C-alpha cells in the first residue's frame, strides 16, 4: 500500500548526526514499510469493500434482507463473500510472511550517507540489481573528512555533522546536498550515497548516516501502489448484472401488474375457496407483495452458485499451472506458481507485454565467442576431423592446462587461436595484450593462483577473462601501473592516461609505457568510430574485418573493434602537459578534453575485433516469435544503455534486419523528441496530414474511448532512451508517443527508471483499453508488475522482490508462452463457455417461472418442486458445469503452439461479450418457451395408461424439470461421464424424495408423494422429453453447421487442420549477413577511467609471482599488414535491408497464415 503522511510538502531535508531531539522535530518517516494489503483492523472493512465491488454481492445481501419478512420467504440464500475473503486472508498472510523471510543481510535497508569503510580511500563496492537490474560492480566513496572516523565507535558517536539535502524523490541517479562539519561545508552527490536495496560486495564494513527511511527511500518512492486487480470479465459481469437487475425488475413489475388486474377481475371468485387473513390492502397490497415475491423466485437469473463456481474454477485452473511439469525448471528446482486465483482467464486476453531485459530475457552472462585478428576469424567450432557419414559429435574444448591462471569456467572451441598465441604471432599477442591492458577491471587474488575479476560491466569482464585464458593475465593495478602476465612472464606497464568512455565517443583508450620504455595507445570501441580514425594503410584489412563483423552481427553477437598506435615520446610529453591543463580547467573542461582525445586518437592501426555473446535465456527468441504470431506486442523496458538494449533486441528476434526501419528517439529537449516522433509516424504513415495527429483534447473529450491501432504497411521498431521518454510521457506529448509506438511492432525503452516503467504501463492501460502483462525479475521491476493487469515474476539472480509482488511466477522467460497460449487460453475459453452455459441454463430455468405465472393467477407459485429448485444448481447441474470448466479443451497444447493465432479471439473478447450474452438470453427465451409449452400442451388432455388424469400440477412439474435437465446437458467426450452421473443422481434423489417413507416422516416437506413413479412410467412422457430436447438443441446444431460452413472461426479452421497434418517445410535456414553493427559490446559508465587514475580505486599493490609457463617465443611489438583508409560505415543507411537476406519464419508466417487455415 502507498504510505502517506499528513504533513506539509517537504522542500529540503535537514538532519544532524547523533541528535535525536533535533531530528524528531521534523517528524520524518520511520524505517517501517508495509507491503501487505491488510492488517488485523483493516481486513474486514477493506475486504468487504473489495468484495462488494461485485454488484452481485450487493444484490445477494439485498435478497438476504428481503427474506426476513415471513410473507416473502420463498427460498433460502447465503453469501458467497466468505469464500473469497478467506482466500484473500490466506494469500495476504503468505505475502507478509514471504516479505519477512527473504531479506538479504548484506542489503541496505535505508538511504545512507557513506561515512567510512574498511577499504583503502574509503571506497565501498556495491551491486544495484534491485534498483536498476544491473549486477555490475559499482563504486561509492566517502568524504575524506568523514573517512577519518574509521570504525572507532567513540569518534562516530561524537560526529555532529549537519546534512542539508534534497527532499525525498524517485530519481535513482541523482542526489544533491551539503554536509556542514566543523567550519567547512562539503558537497554531496550520488557517489557518496548508498541507497536502500544496494548490496555490499567485497567490503568488510562501512558506516553511514541515515538520510531517508521507510517510504521516503528512493527505492520505495519508485514502487507502485498495490491495487485491487479485476479481470475484464469481472468488470463486464458487473455491467451485465446491472442489466439483469433491470430485466428482473421489469419482469417482476409485469407480473405485479398482472396480479393487480387478476385480483380485480378474478380474485374475488377465489375468496370463498381461499379466504384472506387480512384483506384490508386489496389488489394493491397483493400486487406489492407479488412484486417482491417474484424478485425472490426469479433471483436465480444471478444465483450465488455462479460466483462460488467461478472461484472453484479459478482455483482449479491455478492448480493446473502449479502442477505443470513443462513449466518446471530443474536447474533451479523452481516450479511455476499461480500466486493469485482471480486472474487466470485474463491470461488469455493479453495484448501488450512489458518485459525487463537483464535477468529476464538475458542471463547477464557474457562469453567470448569469436574474434577476427589481422583478417582471420577464430572461434568456429572445428569439425573437419569428423567423417562425412558419421553422426556429428560435440566439438572438443580448447585445453588451457598450459596456463595455471586460466579460468576453468572459460570455454573455447577453436584450437588454432591458442596455437597462434603459443607460436608468438605478433598480431595475435598484441590483440590479447590490448584486452589485458585497456579496461577498468579490478583484480582480487583470493588465494594463490585464484583470481577474481570485478568488472563494472560483464562484457569487459568477458574480454579480460578471454585474454587471461590465452596467456595474457591481468593481475593487479595501481593508479600508476598495470601488472599482467604475458605467457608466464610478469610485465609491469606504467599507466600514463585513460581516455574515458562516454556515449558520444563510444570508445575508450589507455596510454601506457611498456617495460622497454615505449609509449603506446590501445583503443577499443564501436567499429563505426574506430574505422574513422585508422591509418590510411588499413583499408584492405578494414574491408576484410567489416565482412567478419557483418557475420558476427548476423549471428547476434556484440562486436568491438580494437586498434593501437605507438606514440612519439616528445609528442606525448607535449600532449600530457595540455591534458593536465585541460583537466584542471574551470570552464569548458569537457570540450577541451574531447579535443585532446581526438588529437591523439588518430592514425590508429587496426588489430581486429571481438565478438561477445550476451547469453539469452533458453528459448527467448522462439518465445518472442511465437508470441508475435499470437498478435501480442512486446515492449522491453530496461535500465541498460541504448546500444546494449538494441543489440539484445536483435538477438532475441524482437528487432529484425527485415524491418523497414528502426526509429531512434534520443532528443534532449521536448521539441527534439516531438520532431523525432513526428518524423517516425510520417515515415510509417506518409499520407497522413500534419493536423491529423491525435492531440490530447481530441481523445480526452471521449470518456472511455480507446486509442485505435493504425494499420501501417511494413514492420517498424522504436528505441527511446530514458531522457527522451521523460519528455514523451508529459501530458502534452504522451498521446503522440503512444500513437507512434503502437504502430511499431516492437518498442524498446532504455535507461528508464522503475517509475518510468510503471508510467509506460499506465499510459497503455489508460488509452489502449487492452490487457497488459509485465514481467521482470528484480526489485526495479516491482512498480511495473504492480501497474500491469497481470504481473509475472521470474525467480532469478536479483532476489525475490519481483516474485513476491507478482501474480504468477516461474524461473524462465520461455515458460511465458505456455502460460499464455495454453493455460491462459484454456482458462479464458473455459470461463467463457462456463458463463454462457451457466447463464443459459439459469435463464431458461427462470423464464419458465415467468411463463407459468400467466397460468397460475400471478400467485408467485413455483413451477418446480422446492427441492428441485434447491438442488438444481447445487447438485444436478454442478458436475457438468465443473467438468466443462475444468477439463474442456478445444485443441490440445501442441496445437495451441502450432496455431498461435487461436489466441487472438481472446484479445478481441469474442467468446464472451455483451453480444454473446444477448444471444445467450435469446436462446434461453426460446428454450424456456419450448420447455414450458410443449409439456403443457402434451399433458393438458392426456391420461395415464390406467385411465387416470395425467395433467395435474405435480406431474407437470416433474415432466418439466426432467426435460430441463436433459436439455441443459453439454455433451462432450469428457463431460459425458458427469452428465450421466448427474442424471442418475437426479433420478435417484427424485424417486427417494417422492417415496412413501419420507412422506410419512415429513409430510409437509415431501408433498410430491408417488409423483415420479406415476409420471415417469408413461411412454408419452418420455416422448415429450425427447421432443422437447430435440426442439431445444435443433437451433444450436443448425447455427453451428451454418457457421462452420459459411463463416468458420479460427478454432474451426484449426480443428479441420488437425485432420491433415501440415506438410514438412521445404525451407532451409541459412545464416544471413547484417548491416547493423551499432550495438557494440561496451557498457560501463562514463567517468570510470577518471576514478581509476585518481588514486581512489586502489585495492592491492602488485606482487611478484613466479612463472609457471613454458617459455615461448614472444614479442612485444609487431608491424601490421598493409592497409588503406577512406571508408566509414556510417555513410550507409543504418537499418537498410540487406540484399538477398532470407525472411524470418515470423515474416513468412504472416504472409501465409491466411492460406494455411
From TrEMBL:
Its EC number is 7.6.2.1. InterPro entries: ATPase_P-typ_cyto_dom_N (IPR023299), ATPase_P-typ_P_site (IPR018303), ATPase_P-typ_TM_dom_sf (IPR023298), HAD-like_sf (IPR036412), HAD_sf (IPR023214), P-type_ATPase_IV (IPR006539), P-type_ATPase_N (IPR032631), P_typ_ATPase (IPR001757). Residues 1056-1080 are annotated as: Disordered. It comes from the Eukaryota. The active site is at residue 356. ATP binds at residues 356-358, 460, 501, 524, 558, 638-640, 751, 757, 780-781. Residues 803-1049 form the P-type ATPase C-terminal domain. It is a multi-pass membrane protein. GO terms for biological process: Golgi organization; phospholipid translocation. GO terms for molecular function: ATP binding; ATP hydrolysis activity; magnesium ion binding; phosphatidylcholine flippase activity. Its cofactor is Mg(2+). PROSITE patterns: ATPASE_E1_E2 (PS00154). Residues 16-76 form the P-type ATPase N-terminal domain. It is found in: Membrane. The chain crosses the membrane at residues 239-262, 282-308, 838-861, 867-887, 916-938, 983-1002, 1022-1047. Keywords: ATP-binding, Magnesium, Membrane, Metal-binding, Nucleotide-binding, Translocase, Transmembrane, Transmembrane helix. The keyword Iron-sulfur does not apply. Residues 1066-1075 have a biased composition (Basic residues). Signal peptide: none annotated. Belongs to the cation transport ATPase (P-type) (TC 3.A.3) family. Type IV subfamily. This is Phospholipid-transporting ATPase. It comes from Gadus morhua (Atlantic cod).
Amino acid at each position: 500500500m502507498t504510505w502517506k503522511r499528513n504533513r506539509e510538502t517537504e522542500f529540503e531535508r535537514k538532519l544532524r548526526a547523533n541528535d535525536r531531539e533535533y531530528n524528531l522535530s521534523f517528524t520524518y518517516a520511520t524505517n517501517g514499510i508495509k507491503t501487505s494489503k491488510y492488517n488485523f483492523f483493516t481486513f474486514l472493512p477493506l475486504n468487504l469493500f473489495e468484495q462488494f465491488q461485485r454488484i452481485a454481492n450487493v444484490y445477494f445481501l439485498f435478497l438476504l434482507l428481503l427474506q426476513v419478512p415471513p410473507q416473502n420467504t420463498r427460498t433460502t440464500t447465503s453469501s458467497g463473500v466468505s469464500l473469497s475473503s478467506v482466500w484473500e486472508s490466506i494469500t495476504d498472510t503468505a505475502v507478509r510472511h514471504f516479505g519477512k523471510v527473504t531479506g538479504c543481510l548484506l542489503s541496505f535497508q535505508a538511504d545512507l550517507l557513506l561515512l567510512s569503510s574498511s577499504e583503502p580511500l574509503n571506497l565501498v563496492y556495491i551491486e544495484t540489481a534491485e534498483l536498476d537490474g544491473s549486477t555490475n560492480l559499482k563504486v561509492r566513496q566517502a568524504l575524506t573528512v568523514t573517512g577519518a572516523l574509521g570504525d572507532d565507535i567513540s569518534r562516530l558517536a561524537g560526529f555532529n555533522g549537519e546534512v542539508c539535502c534534497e527532499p525525498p524523490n524517485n530519481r535513482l541517479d541523482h542526489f544533491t546536498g551539503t554536509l556542514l562539519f566543523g567550519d567547512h561545508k562539503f558537497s554531496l552527490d550520488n557517489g557518496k550515497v548508498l541507497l536502500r536495496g544496494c548490496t555490499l560486495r567485497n567490503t568488510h564494513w562501512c558506516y553511514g548516516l541515515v538520510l531517508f527511511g521507510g517510504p521516503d527511500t528512493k527505492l520505495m518512492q519508485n514502487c507502485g501502489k498495490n491495487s485491487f486487480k479485476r479481470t475484464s470479465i469481472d468488470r463486464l459481469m458487473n455491467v451485465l448484472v446491472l442489466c439483469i437487475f433491470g430485466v428482473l425488475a421489469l419482469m417482476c413489475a409485469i407480473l405485479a401488474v398482472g396480479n393487480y388486474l387478476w385480483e380485480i377481475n378474478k380474485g374475488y371468485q377465489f375468496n370463498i375457496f381461499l379466504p384472506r387473513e387480512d384483506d384490508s390492502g386489496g389488489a394493491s397490497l397483493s400486487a406489492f407483495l407479488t412484486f417482491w415475491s417474484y424478485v425472490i423466485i426469479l433471483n436465480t437469473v444471478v444465483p450465488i452458485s455462479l460466483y462460488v463456481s467461478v472461484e472453484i474454477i479459478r482455483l482449479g485452473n491455478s492448480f493446473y499451472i502449479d502442477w505443470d511439469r513443462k513449466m518446471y525448471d530443474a536447474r533451479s528446482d523452481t516450479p511455476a506458481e499461480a500466486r493469485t486465483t482471480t486472474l487466470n482467464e485474463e491470461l488469455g486476453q493479453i495484448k501488450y507485454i512489458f518485459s525487463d531485459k537483464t535477468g529476464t530475457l538475458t542471463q547477464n552472462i557474457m562469453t567470448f565467442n569469436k574474434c577476427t585478428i589481422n583478417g582471420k576469424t577464430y572461434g568456429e567450432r572445428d569439425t573437419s576431423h569428423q567423417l562425412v557419414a558419421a553422426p556429428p559429435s560435440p566439438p572438443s574444448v580448447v585445453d588451457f592446462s598450459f596456463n595455471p591462471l586460466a579460468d576453468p569456467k572459460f570455454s573455447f572451441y577453436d584450437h588454432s587461436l591458442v596455437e597462434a598465441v603459443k607460436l608468438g604471432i605478433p598480431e595475435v599477442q598484441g590483440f590479447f595484450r590490448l584486452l589485458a591492458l585497456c579496461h577498468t577491471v579490478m583484480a582480487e587474488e583470493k588465494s594463490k593462483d585464484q583470481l577474481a575479476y570485478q568488472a563494472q560491466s560483464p562484457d569487459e569482464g568477458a574480454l579480460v577473462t578471454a585474454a587471461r585464458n590465452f596467456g595474457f593475465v591481468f593481475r593487479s593495478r595501481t593508479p600508476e601501473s598495470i601488472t599482467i602476465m604475458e605467457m608466464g612472464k610478469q610485465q609491469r606497464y606504467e599507466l600514463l592516461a585513460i581516455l574515458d568512455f562516454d556515449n558520444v565517443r563510444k570508445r575508450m583508450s589507455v596510454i601506457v609505457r611498456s617495460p622497454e620504455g615505449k609509449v603506446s595507445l590501445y583503443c577499443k570501441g564501436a567499429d563505426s568510430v574506430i574505422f574513422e580514425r585508422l591509418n590510411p594503410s588499413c583499408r584492405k584489412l578494414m574491408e576484410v574485418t567489416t565482412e567478419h563483423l557483418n557475420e558476427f552481427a548476423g549471428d547476434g553477437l556484440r562486436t568491438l573493434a580494437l586498434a593501437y598506435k605507438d606514440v612519439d615520446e616528445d609528442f606525448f610529453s607535449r600532449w600530457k602537459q595540455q591534458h593536465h591543463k585541460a583537466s584542471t580547467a574551470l570552464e569548458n573542461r569537457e570540450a577541451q578534453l574531447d579535443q585532446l582525445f581526438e588529437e591523439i586518437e588518430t592514425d590508429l592501426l587496426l588489430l581486429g575485433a571481438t565478438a561477445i555473446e550476451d547469453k539469452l535465456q533458453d528459448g527467448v527468441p522462439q518465445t518472442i516469435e511465437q508470441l508475435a504470431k499470437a498478435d501480442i506486442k512486446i515492449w522491453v523496458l530496461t535500465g541498460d544503455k541504448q546500444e546494449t538494449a538494441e543489440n539484445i533486441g536483435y538477438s532475441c528476434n524482437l528487432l529484425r534486419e527485415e524491418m523497414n526501419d528502426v526509429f531512434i528517439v534520443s532528443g534532449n529537449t521536448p521539441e527534439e523528441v516531438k520532431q523525432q516522433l513526428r518524423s517516425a509516424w510520417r515515415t510509417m504513415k506518409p499520407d497522413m496530414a500534419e493536423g491529423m495527429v491525435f492531440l490530447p483534447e481530441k481523445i480526452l473529450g471521449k470518456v472511455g474511448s480507446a486509442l485505435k491501432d493504425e494499420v501501417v504497411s511494413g514492420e517498424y521498431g522504436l528505441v527511446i532512451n530514458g531522457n527522451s521518454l521523460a519528455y514523451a510521457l508529459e501530458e502534452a506529448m504522451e498521446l503522440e508517443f503512444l500513437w507512434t509506438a503502437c504502430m511499431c511492432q516492437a518498442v524498446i525503452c532504455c535507461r528508464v527508471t522503475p517509475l518510468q516503467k510503471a508510467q509506460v504501463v499506465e499510459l497503455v492501460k489508460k488509452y489502449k483499453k487492452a490487457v497488459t502483462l509485465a514481467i521482470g525479475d528484480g526489485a526495479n521491476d516491482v512498480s511495473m508488475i504492480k501497474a500491469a493487469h497481470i504481473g509475472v515474476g521470474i525467480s532469478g539472480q536479483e532476489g525475490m522482490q519481483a516474485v513476491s509482488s507478482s501474480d504468477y511466477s516461474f524461473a524462465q522467460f520461455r515458460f511465458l508462452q505456455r502460460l499464455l497460449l495454453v493455460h491462459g487460453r484454456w482458462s479464458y475459453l473455459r470461463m467463457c463457455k462456463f458463463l454462457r452455459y451457466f447463464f443459459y441454463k439459469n435463464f431458461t430455468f427462470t423464464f419458465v417461472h415467468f411463463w407459468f405465472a400467466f397460468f397460475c393467477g400471478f400467485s408467485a407459485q413455483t413451477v418446480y418442486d422446492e427441492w428441485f429448485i434447491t438442488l438444481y444448481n447445487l447438485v444436478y447441474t454442478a458436475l457438468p458445469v465443473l467438468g466443462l470448466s475444468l477439463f474442456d479443451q478445444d485443441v490440445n497444447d501442441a496445437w495451441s503452439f502450432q496455431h498461435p493465432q487461436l489466441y487472438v479471439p481472446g484479445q478481441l473478447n469474442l467468446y464472451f461479450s455483451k453480444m454473446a450474452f444477448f444471444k445467450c438470453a435469446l436462446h434461453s427465451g426460446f428454450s424456456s418457451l419450448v420447455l414450458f409449452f410443449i409439456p403443457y400442451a402434451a399433458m393438458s388432455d392426456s391420461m395415464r395408461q390406467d385411465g387416470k388424469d395425467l395433467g395435474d400440477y405435480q406431474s407437470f412439474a416433474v415432466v418439466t424439470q426432467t426435460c430441463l435437465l436433459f436439455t441443459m446437458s453439454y455433451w462432450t467426450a469428457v463431460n459425458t461421464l458427469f452428465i450421466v452421473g448427474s442424471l442418475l443422481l437426479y433420478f435417484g434423489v427424485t424417486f427417494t424424495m417422492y417415496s412413501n417413507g419420507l412422506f410419512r416422516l415429513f409430510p409437509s416437506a415431501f408433498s410430491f408423494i408417488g409423483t415420479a413413479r406415476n409420471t415417469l412410467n408413461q411412454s408419452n412422457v418420455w416422448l415429450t422429453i425427447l421432443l422437447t430436447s430435440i426442439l431445444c438443441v435443433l437451433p444450436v446444431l443448425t447455427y453451428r453447421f451454418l457457421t462452420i460452413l459459411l463463416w468458420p472461426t479460427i478454432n474451426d479452421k484449426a480443428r479441420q487442420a488437425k485432420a491433415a497434418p501440415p506438410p514438412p517445410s521445404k525451407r532451409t535456414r541459412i545464416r544471413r549477413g547484417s548491416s547493423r553493427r551499432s550495438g557494440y559490446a561496451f557498457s560501463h559508465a562514463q567517468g570510470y577511467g577518471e576514478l581509476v587514475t585518481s588514486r581512489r580505486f586502489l585495492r592491492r599493490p602488485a606482487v611478484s609471482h613466479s612463472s609457471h609457463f613454458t617459455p615461448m617465443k614472444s614479442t612485444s611489438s609487431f608491424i601490421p599488414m598493409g592497409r588503406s583508409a577512406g571508408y566509414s560505415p556510417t555513410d550507409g543507411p543504418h537499418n537498410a535491408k540487406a540484399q538477398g537476406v532470407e525472411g524470418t519464419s515470423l515474416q513468412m508466417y504472416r504472409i501465409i497464415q491466411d492460406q494455411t487455415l
